[in-house]
Design a protein that fits this description.
- InterPro entries: bHLH_dom, bHLH_transcription_factors, HLH_DNA-bd_sf, Ngn3_bHLH.
- One of its GO terms (molecular function) is DNA-binding transcription repressor activity, RNA polymerase II-specific.
- Pfam families: HLH.
- With about 210 residues, this protein is mainly α.
- It has 6 helices and no strands.
- The protein has helices spanning about 15-20, 55-60, 75-110, 120-150, 185-190, 190-200.
- The chain is elongated and about 85 Å long.
- It binds a DNA duplex (16 and 16 nucleotides) through α1 and α3.
Length: about 210
DNA sequence: TAGGCCATCTGGTCCT
DNA sequence: AGGACCAGATGGCCTA
């Protein structure tokens, strides 16, 4: 029941993700048995200290051991734990790679200038959100104008954002992206086509072409 | 050098 | 039991 990103059923190592896989080789992930949770813990060095783990140790202490199952040596248990952790790490890495692949795919369909710096993850999500909203409004305007052919004087300012946020295009990058200079709002302000086309609440569909988003 | 972004590891929780 | 998902922690890289 795991929704797969369409078209990306398998792990794709993308430009982004293949950039750096320092990949603290699994063998490096050692399990020093008495590492206290330290704020300066070194990477891959903490691991679950035999029982407690790095944080909230008490819980692990609850872990049942022994019982009526066949006794396993401490060594065997440790090996098993490490093996499980390693597999979990692999899966988690894989999962994140999938997520990144999906994000890359999303970047691929968003209008950007070739020389634009790659959108960050959060920028990508925000931009996609706003972009979808913009396209939706475009369709609405088109519909509206078709309708207007039969009934006069469509009124402006009817646009509304999906979330009930302000309807003007100035909000194209809000409410979710109002932050710093790296936000899509800032980086896209240099796209006069987009903002130009979108800053007016009263557009005729003919003036809003897809190229306006580029 | 501080801050942002990212990849990875890790333990917890939920689900099958 | 094991996998998926999640959030916290940590260190590396980059840029202003």
């Amino acid at each position: 029941m795991t929704p797969q990103p369409s078209g990306a059923p398998t792990v794709q190592v993308t430009r982004e993700t293949e950039r750096s896989f320092p990949r603290a080789s699994e063998d490096e992930v050692t399990c020093p048995t008495s590492a206290p949770p330290s704020p300066t813990r070194t990477r891959g060095n903490c691991a679950e200290a035999e029982e407690g783990g790095c944080r909230g140790a008490p819980r692990k202490l609850r872990a049942r051991r022994g019982g009526r199952s066949r006794p396993k040596s401490e060594l065997a248990l440790s090996k098993q734990r490490r093996s499980r952790r390693k597999k979990a790490n692999d899966r988690e890495r894989n999962r994140m790679h999938n997520l990144n692949s999906a994000l890359d795919a999303l970047r691929g369909v968003l209008p950007t200038f070739p020389d634009d710096a790659k959108l960050t993850k959060i920028e990508t999500l925000r931009f996609a959100h706003n972009y979808i909203w913009a396209l939706t409004q475009t369709l609405r305007i088109a519909d509206h104008s078709l309708y207007a052919l039969e009934s006069p004087a469509p009124h402006c300012g009817e646009l509304g954002s999906p979330g009930g946020s302000p309807g003007d295009w100035g909000s194209l990058y809000s409410p979710v992206s109002q932050a710093g200079s790296l936000s899509p709002a800032a980086s896209l302000e240099e796209r006069p086509g987009l903002l130009g086309a979108t800053s007016s609440a009263c557009l005729s569909p003919g003036t809003l072409a897809f190229s306006d988003f580029l």
